[in-house]
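Q: Protein A?
A:
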Amino acid sequence: MVKDVLQDAEHRMAGALKALEEELATIRTGRASPALVEKLPVPYYGTPTPLVQLATIAVPEPRLITIKPFDPASLKDIERAILASELGLTPGNDGKIIRLPIPALTEERRKELTKVVHHRMEDARVAVRNVRRDSIEDLREFEKEKMISEDDLKRGQDDLQKLTDKFVNKIDEAGKRKEKEIAEV
């Protein structure tokens, strides 16, 4: 019983960490990365479709992303989606390929991005704490129904706290890595 609750909690906490890492990958630093635009929704025949499904995304230079649509007719839609996004990038195209130059970050923009990173980290911490709360409620319910002993409940809560601390530390590490990346000139 307790083991099942702990496994479920660990799985859900790992999901929160994975979601954070994916979110952080989309935050633009001074370096080009396909992750910046992969999930960008592009209206394709009336359906928002992730850019990665519509085009080949490459990084030929450290400050340039190239996007080559599989369907040349979608070039304008992709361009519009990039302009409408919060990336703050201006695409250029030659009729076949979209080129996205990544400008160097200003000090002001670095501070804004650091705030965004902190906000996303806090969201992930809250998600991990919610998993802990739900799992503790499950354990208490089991104890109330005499399915586990009071000692099992106490041990389960202690193990859950260790798990929570482990994932909060991983979240902090992921955030620090991203902050360091943002701070690089």
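Q: Protein B?
A:
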Amino acid sequence: MDLVQISIGNAVTAPSRGSDRKPPWLKVRAPGGNNYAEIRKLMRGLGLHTVCEEARCPNIGECWEHRAATFMVLGDVCTRNCAYCAVAHGTPTEYDPDEPVRLAEAVERIGLKHVVITSVDRDDLPNGGSEIFAECTTEIHARLSETTVELLIPDFKGSSRALRIVVDAEPDILNHNLETVQRLYRMARPGGDYQRALNLLRSAKDMNPELVTKSGMMCGLGEEWDELLGAMQDLRRQDVDLLTLGQYLRPSHSHLPVARYYAPQEFDELRVAGLNMGFRHVEAGPLVRSSYHAWEQAQRATPV
């Protein structure tokens, strides 16, 4: 059944399926500019992927103009098929052991002070590709000692061995997104598991109590406000330090529809609620994604 646009407090339900009309606060400028063109050319030349492009991030223009990008390693085909994600899924063929060297070269040439690295899920690999995450971290730290590294990792199907490989590489921030509330997990993320995601974040902290951990959630998939607050509390119980909260935007008509759009004021309320729960920093807003302003989040997470 199609949804109609009506007011619910400060929020707005999703428009009818035919129009996909969005609230005015979700409008962004089309990407362009010299830095954008330069980074795009560099990625093509080095055979690298970015989640900015593959996931159709609305912030690509802003971030690339600020010379910030989120690298996506291990190819561009995911072994899972999450109902909200624009990344292609199927049987991957790409695995390049030299990718960490090329990625570190790109980081050096762009001049990044903080780099975010994520990947597709690679359930076809013995350790889920964790070695590539570790080698990227080691290679960047060897070249650029002042550059901080943030890894946004998959759940590795709950493998402690794979997680240990990543943690032992000593990234500055380890991120795994919870994405949505427990009730909606089977619908939105059929290859994942709510408790497994929480266990991974807890295990990372147990392996290295000094490690800064991070997670993120999408708003607007059909969760209730109390469910969202409950999931945030679940993350704090795992001693997660940083949290990102953003609006789910439907990549195409084959993906889950938007249940409703959260207003900027509601994201402000969620940010305050998260800080009151004890998160070191909460980045919340309609256009916020895991790596949005990640360099600023990293600075704010560093104890004085």
